[in-house]
Amino acid sequence: MDAKALEDLISETVRVYCVTMRSAEAPIGPDTPLFGAGGVLDSIGLVSVIVEIEQKLSDIEGREISLMNDRALSQARSPFRTVRCLADYARAQIADGGPR
C-alpha cells in the first residue's frame, strides 16, 4: 500500500469518526493533527480510530497489523501526531512483516 493510499484510508477513517461523534467537521488531510494540541481526536477517539485502521489494514494485508504497541508508545515523537505521521508509521509496520 503506498503512502497516498494509507493517508487516504486514515483521513477517511478519522473523518467518518468525527462525523459520527458529531464533532465539527473540518477537512482532514495529511497534516491534520490527530491527537494532542489542536488534534481532532480525544484519547477515546484516537483508540477507536486506531483499532478501526488496524482492522482495515489487517483485512487488506491478510495478516494482523498492530499500530498501538510498545514500539509506537516508546518513540520520542508519537506516530499519532498527524495523518502523515500515522501513515508513515503504518507503512513501516506493514513492511516489518509482523505476525502471519
Descriptive keywords:
about 100 residues, mainly alpha, Non-ribosomal Peptide Synthetase Peptidyl Carrier Protein, Chain A, 4 helices, globular
Write the layout of secondary structure elements.
Layout: H1 3-20, H2 43-61, H3 70-73, H4 83-96
Helix pairs in contact: 1-2, 1-4
Can you tell me about this structure?
By secondary structure, the chain is mainly alpha-helical. It has one domain (3-96): Non-ribosomal Peptide Synthetase Peptidyl Carrier Protein, Chain A (Orthogonal Bundle). The chain is 55% helix and 0% strand. It contains four helices and no strands. The chain has helices at residues 3-20, 43-61, 70-73, 83-96. The chain is globular and about 35 Å long. The chain starts with a helix and ends with a helix. 26% of the residues are buried. The mean pLDDT is 89.
- The total count of strands amounts to 0
Task: Quote the beta fraction.
Answer: under 5%
Helix content: 55-70%
Would you identify the regions where 5 or more consecutive residues have pLDDT less than 50?
Answer: none
Structural class: mainly alpha
Q: What is the CATH class name?
A: Mainly Alpha
The mean pLDDT is 89
Shape assignment: globular
Distance between the amino and carboxyl termini: 17 Å
Q: Give the topology string: H per helix, E per strand.
A: HHHH
User: Based on the structure, what is the oligomeric state of the protein chains?
Assistant: single chain
Supply the number of helical segments: 4
Q: From the 3D coordinates, which CATH architecture would you assign?
A: Orthogonal Bundle
CATH superfamily: ACP-like
Radius of gyration: 13 Å
- The tally of structural domains comes to 1
- What's the story with the biggest beta sheet? none
At the fold tier of CATH, the topology name is Non-ribosomal Peptide Synthetase Peptidyl Carrier Protein, Chain A
